[in-house]
Amino acid sequence: MQLDERSEKYFEIERKNIGLVGSNGGYYGIEDILKKKKLFEISALKEIRRYAGFFGLSDLVIYSYNVGNGIIYCAELGYQTSIDDYNVETHIFSRIPSVDDVTLVRSMDEFELDLRLTRNGVQAEYRCWECGRNSHWIDIHGNFKDKVEKLREGYCGC
């Protein structure tokens, strides 16, 4: 499903502001991905940070690597999806990501999916329960987290 233009632009700007280049999810971490693409030997992949038990998942590991066009950074984490299955997320950045950057990326991805699928009744535009004004979630004052919380409450912040 398609996002409205304002939401799409907001996500694009926010991702650019934190240096996000792209994200992947699947069975393979960055080392395996580089090996499959035959780039591991030249990549100089190096673990530069590790955060234990990120969100009760695996450790969040930050890597740096270079495949010919400058240093790139990867935030990698994994989690179990069923009894014998798992997912490894790799988030690629143009700068060293913080834990907050990775948290924001994961939250934006989840919320974007809610908007695309109108999951849990989430829609970009809504009527405020307090004042009755029609609002767009981007018009709510505050950071991303504030905007999402108020949208879910159906409150514009009037």
Report the structural category: alpha+beta
Beta-strand residue percentage: 25-35%
Chain-averaged pLDDT:
92
Quickly count the helices.
5
Anisotropy-based shape: elongated
Please summarize the sheet with the most strands: 5 strands, antiparallel
Helix content: 25-40%
Order of helices and strands: HEHHEEEEHEEH
The strand order across the widest sheet is: 1-5-4-3-2
Distance between the termini: 30 Å
Total beta strands: 7
Unreliable parts: none
Gyration radius, rounded? 18 Å
Q: What does this protein look like?
A:
The protein is α+β, with helices and mostly antiparallel strands. 34% of the residues lie in helices and 30% in strands. The strands form two sheets. It has a five-stranded antiparallel sheet. The protein has a two-stranded antiparallel sheet with strand order 6-7. A hairpin with a 6-residue loop joins strand 6 and strand 7. The two termini are 30 Å apart. The mean pLDDT is 92.
